[in-house]
């Protein structure tokens, strides 16, 4: 614990590996067997990354971690069963930001993302959506990844086991600059914003490949940056505006969440929000997949 508080990633990795059985037992006692309990343990460990210095007595580390997982479980029990995570995107801020902000503010942030980048892409993307985005329900992840819900659960389980090993394996390595990756993803959002404002398709060139493929609300796979621009122009010309809200950046894949405002005279023109997955090639988006929030 003292090593972890001093900023030693190996110390934190060993600390988290020492207590998973106890944490899982508590989560099962509160939530029952299944993915909810496993996810609660994962969330608790991520939150502990940022709150490590809250603990004054190192010998109390085990009890402190148990208290964190209990709080996570209680928060999950208070959440209405019918609640759809993506719908919460229309309300800025809120509890959904907790895990992502904790890691982003933490001194060990780049280490965590370096370990995430070592996961196979399907596992990495599933973890990013589940723990850092508002499209975090199994159904939303399944739609974005075009796989059954059962596959989402199995990928999360596999990623959870492998991530612990990768955190220890990368503790002493040089870690990628996550701010640089974030700026790369923001460039795509800035290009879309500029295109909506000016109608100049050339602003998309630096952020999207000419042969890009994309999937929009109808889930039809289409190809070509020119076609992508034409379809976007149709909505923008109708008066739709887009406001990027959150960027979850990775070296080869990123998640961008955007609020959509329909024109006043056609309030149901478009869904209130969209979650986009950007697959990168040589620094540009070569495939884009979208998941739209339900209309009110």
Low-confidence stretches: 81-107
- Approximately what portion of the residues adopt beta-strand conformation? 15-25%
- SSE arrangement, N to C: HHHHHHHHHHHEEHEEEE
Determine the oligomeric state from the structure: single chain
Can you put this structure into words, describing what you see?
The protein is of the alpha+beta class and 296 residues long. Among the domains are: 79 residues, Orthogonal Bundle (Rna Polymerase Sigma Factor, Chain: A), CATH 1.10.1740.10; 115 residues, Nuclear Transport Factor 2, Chain: A (Roll). It is 52% helix and 16% strand. It has twelve helices and six strands. The chain has a six-stranded mixed beta sheet, sandwiched between helices. Helix 4 packs across helix 5, helix 8 crosses helix 10 and helix 9 packs across helix 10. It starts with a helix and ends with a strand. About 9% of the residues have low confidence.
